[in-house]
Amino acid sequence: MLPNRDSIKAKLREYEDARDKVINTGIRLNRLSKSVIYSVIRNDWEAADKYLNDMRRELESLMSLIKQYPFYYDKAAVSFQEYAEAYIMYEFNKNGKIPTIEEVGVDELAYLNGLMEFTGELSRKATEELIRDNLDYALKAKETMEDIYLDMLYMEFRDFEMRKKVDYVANNINWLNEKIFYKTLNKGR
């Protein structure tokens, strides 16, 4: 008989339960992140504030789990990125700035991935604002996206997935440029 088999089995069950908690907490965090973003796009700040507070609580829970079970970080990485994306979107639209990595409170990879994904949501928000004839917002968004793009080029990522995300930022800039062009072209009519 395997020595200590009962304690080994109990530890395995603990790890399985922890894995499930990490995944489920991550799912809740992802949903709340999307709710923050959609609320910001709709200018529903009351809902955005509520979702942001809920999102922070889930982030704390997830970080606590990862501190205890760091080998499950890979199960939480996307959720940290989603949180960063939503928090950056919120801060940019509420306070007019990109928050620092310290303000966001995630690691460098989650922050940079979230920042680059933020450009897609910013482009969506800029499109909504163009529909409302808010060209100034779209121009500010474009300038912000260009700054992010230049900062990401500066990073000289070696990782292929990160380099693809830099291309994603460039594509978001191009799409927004086209929308701005057509909006300004038709403005005189």
TrEMBL record:
Task: Quote the InterPro entries the UniProt record gives.
Answer: Translin_fam, Translin_sf
GO MF terms held by the record: sequence-specific DNA binding
Instruction: Quote the Pfam families the UniProt record gives.
Output: Translin
Recorded superkingdom: Archaea
Q: Which CDD domains match?
A: TRAX
- Coiled coil residues, start to end: none
Protein name, as recorded: Translin
